[in-house]
Specification:
By secondary structure, the chain is of the alpha+beta class. The protein has 8 helices and 13 strands. The chain is 41% helix and 23% strand. Helix 6 runs antiparallel to helix 7. The chain starts with a helix and ends with a strand. The relative contact order is 0.11.
């Protein structure tokens, strides 16, 4: 959690690093020790001249070095964590560090694009760390002469990181330009006069996006939207799946590339409030909603639940309520 917070706060650390470097340069100019000019008089007393106190910057330089080194440690830990995440190393809790290897494959499918993104993030982290190390080296070793080359290489790394991030983020953003949908009819073969409906949830998990092994669970984006009358003899579900994509055909394909754990057993229907994306497919803002068509004169009973599943429906069914479908709408029986 600590490393994840550091990754989220990278802009803050970059800003602090730049501010400290600027402050150091300003303080260096303002607190520059004054040199005692040699006396022009031949009979001047050298003992009196040496008695003038000279400011010793060693103590201040050591303190600033310690401060900059302490600031560099979190960035160094974050850099190590990202390198470990790239190679899939895990923490003691069993979660991949920074969750990079868990979620990115479901957002960026191309390994080349993921490598470019990893490299850009690494370079971006190296920039403030490099500046901090440069200041520490300059404070510790006055005869260091590679400042200009170090600064040029750091600037090149910063520009390369920005270009890589712009390309990676821009290319992924193009996958969310166009929306399209895919509809399919799901028959419910039953001879019963009463249809029992329930909502299938993932208990113990409140996150909207969760990685479970090689599957991404997307919750609260699949729901029953409406219940309408039909003149057909059997009830059926109209399932509409929408997604984003670079083109309309790609968006429609992204809508199809999800797994819906819908359960239909005779006259019992369990509608999931989540869907699954198998590794190899990507998340593109998919959502699923159902319209249940019930023959006129048939009944429907809502399963008793302490969680109201129809938060996105046009209306809410009462828990354990029995409804009759008329030619206009549902009527509560008891």
């Amino acid at each position: 959690i600590y490393l994840l917070l550091i990754l989220v706060c990278i802009p803050v650390y970059v800003g602090i690093s730049i501010a400290l470097i600027v402050a150091y340069l300003v303080l260096t100019l303002l607190l520059k020790p004054e040199t005692v000019a040699p006396s022009a008089e031949p009979n001047s007393n050298p003992t009196a001249a040496s008695a003038v106190p000279n400011s010793n910057p060693k103590r201040g330089s050591l303190l600033l070095t310690v401060i900059l080194a302490a600031l560099a440690l979190p960035l160094l830990f974050t850099l190590i964590a990202i390198i470990m995440a790239i190679f899939g190393l895990t923490s003691a809790s069993g979660l991949t560090l920074l969750l990079l290897n868990d979620y990115l494959p479901f957002l960026i499918s191309s390994p080349i694009q993921r490598f470019a993104l990893y490299s850009s993030v690494l370079l971006l982290l190296l920039v403030p760390l490099s500046l901090l190390i440069l200041v520490v080296v300059r404070l510790s070793y006055k005869r260091f002469r590679g400042t200009r080359v170090w600064g040029i290489l750091t600037f090149i790394a910063f520009i390369a990181a920005l270009i890589g991030l712009i390309i990676s983020v821009g290319d992924t953003a193009k996958e969310f330009f166009i929306e399209n949908n895919f509809e399919r009819k799901i028959s419910i073969p039953t001879t019963s006069d009463t249809l029992h409906i329930s909502i299938k949830t993932k208990s113990g998990n409140s996150l909207a996006l969760t990685v479970d092994a090689d599957t991404l669970l997307v919750q609260r984006e699949s729901y029953l939207h409406n219940i309408l009358p039909t003149n057909e003899s059997e009830p059926y579900l109209l399932c509409r799946q929408t997604a984003m994509g670079r083109t309309r055909s790609q968006a429609a394909q992204n809508a199809k590339n999800i797994r819906i754990p819908l359960e239909i057993k005779d006259n019992h229907i369990a509608i999931p409030e989540y869907y699954e994306i198998i590794r190899g497919n990507t998340y593109r803002g998919q959502n699923v909603y159902y319209q249940l068509y019930l023959p006129v004169g048939k009944y429907i009973r809502n399963a008793k639940s302490y969680y109201s599943p129809y938060n996105k429906a046009t209306y809410r069914l009462k828990e354990d309520g029995l409804y009759l479908m008329t030619k206009d709408s549902l009527q509560l029986v008891n």
